[in-house]
Predict the 3D structure of the following.
Amino acid sequence: MNKKWLLVFISALSIFSVVVIIAFSRADNYAKERIIRYVHESSYGKYALKIHEIDFSLIPLSVRADNVELHSIDSTFVAIDSTHKILPSIFIEKIDIEGLALIKALLGKDISISALKLTDPNIFLVSTTDSVSCIHWENTGSGSNRFSIKNISIENGKIKWYGNKSSVSTNLNIAIHDFNLKSPKNPWVIEMNVAFSNIIYKAPDGFYDIKCDSFSMDYPKGDVVFSKIAIDPLIDKYEIGHAKGHESDWDSLNIESVKLSGFKPDKLLNDSLVIENVDIVQLTGVIFRDTRLKFPTIPDTKLPYENLSKFHGFISIDSVHLTGSHLIYQEHVEGSQKAGEVSFNQIEVHGGPISNAQGTVLNMDAKSKLMDTGWMNATFKIPLSADGGKHQVKGELSAMDLSSLNSMFMYVAGANIQSGNNHTMKFNFSYDKYISSGEMDFIYDDLKVKFINTKEEKIKAGLKETFMTLLVNTFVLQEANKPGRSYRKGKIEFERDPKKSIFNYWWKSLFSGIKSSTGFTEKKKR
């Protein structure tokens, strides 16, 4: 009797096992077809999906797809918003999905995955603002469904993006933990590490490549690090103005690193840029301008508060620090055989906050060594509210030999400072959109200037230059300016040229005080 029931049990178990195997096999094929059909349906019929091979296993529950390719079958773009459209083409060597909640996925409910891994994805994007055939990305669901993945990894990714005459290429690795998505507008992650490398941006004008060795982001820690940024000019500094048809800055810059601390990427979803601290380390470079060419017809240059007012949303940066930096400014003026230059060494800038919140005032301290000789320190109070207001600049230049400025004065002003000792130069002025005004205490002695002819290859003084030297040193230039009866307090007054930069505004304001202190005057303050 017992043997009979044992045989019945074994037979039933065998039949059940066969049924289970058949059921799992059918379920495997059904699930595979259902997933592929689901992907095809989600592409709106405008994009072709090719999968070279797909393996589906119920025990353990996993999906693997090899050589996955997605591309538009008729060059149909995807509309990101009313103006920007993107044509994507994606190839992925391997996709691994583990821990798929099959029942929920097949019933069209919440999709839950324990791990998603993309290996060697190649993403090719073309963007345009032109009128093209496009589909609109829309979230047509009720918003109650949830898409969640415990772990996401993207390894050895490559991205190429082409816009209107510009392009970006980069390598990509991403690790994301606990990703939840209720709708495209409401994503959330618990932890995310993003790493880009070998980033190259080609500017649309074809004059520059902007490169970055690496970019990394650690969330929720909030650290973002750019390493070794370079602005590489592709043409000679004397060619850029001729190529553009007007005078233009030529820049060659390198930055060792930029670190954003306390960056909150989730705030971007609410049109808010929130960063606690920005550290810029070792910015070095050369800025050149050929002023012999015509000045361009351009819109007015905006002051900082005007630029912030254009930001759509809220911006808040608690502090910004620039350290270990060096800059050289070169300018080639009409009538000179060579460009003059001035250097700023050991630059440090510390300031904050930067925000478009009403009532914000940026307080900034800056110092650098002028011509690697005298220390220049300055403090700035810059209102950032939409209505602007009075900006304040206060600073001092320490003792230095004024002849060290000849690399600029000889080729820009045609003047050779033969001698001159600056004991101190203190300045204090305010400015708005239109004019600056203030005072300067410039204490110096033994100032002698010789005018020269810079048109010839060998710099020399002719009859005209000799006469000007005699006239200026005898009747115009004050050889010494020390406290006492003959002390001359400089007057800072300069009418802003709205086509030029804020740095031009600051420098020309200071220069007006220098000329006033030494005895020079100018009728036109531009």
About this structure: Residues 2-42 form the longest helix (41 residues).
